[in-house]
## 1
Amino acid sequence: MARGTAERIEWALGLACGAVVLGLAGYLAWTGLAAGTPPVLSVAPEPAPAGELRFVVRNDGSRTATAVALALRLGDGAERRLVIDYVPGHSEATGGFVLPPGEDAAGSEIVVEGYLDP
């Protein structure tokens, strides 16, 4: 291969790689600076063994929610609280409450009480 041809190939590959790097940097800057929609949090119970109440928290917004506060309101009026550290946008987190001995999940409710913006 002639020296001129090798230099042209090197330059073409270098420019292509530079374009890819600039494109990725631009995309990351655009997604990082875009306002997006605020967190839209919902919680739903899931099947669980006796003595536990499992749940899934969904974030249908595009922004992340941190310190998501949940409350479990039991049928007898007692409450339990739990904080989930991090629920990214368009994702979900799962977990569970441990119920007191002899308590069942009937008549209980899990609610989202609040969150923080990161």
## 2
Amino acid sequence: MTGNHSLIDQLQGADARLFPAANAGDLVSLLQRVRRDLKLEPPDDFMEFLRHSNGLLVNGLMLYGTEARRIDDAEMPELVEINLQRRSYRDDLGDVLQLGEIDDDIVGFVPADRHYWRIERISGERQEKFDNLQALLTRLVLRG
């Protein structure tokens, strides 16, 4: 992701809840588990983002990290576990790496087309496409 510090600075300016960076071991483990358990390849810019913030909460958007968290009265699931859980009852999302959620939608990455998507949670319809994580965050959070 280009301009990581700029993006992090912008998110902080938007009152985002950023978490401590994931360490190298956690990132390697996450990468291995995504490949082994989900048979998908995570996007490089998302993995790079986790090096700066291991998850994100801002303006209704939640991006998962390498570990589950309890935040106030809400649960933030761990990335691989939530994907496995949803796959157990959602066959239509097997080609999507679900990275987070916003409002009533899923935020996912489709390795086959190398795009991020905002996906309607109930129908599974792909609503909005983004070329990279920065474009997604700019549109959904920073309102660019």
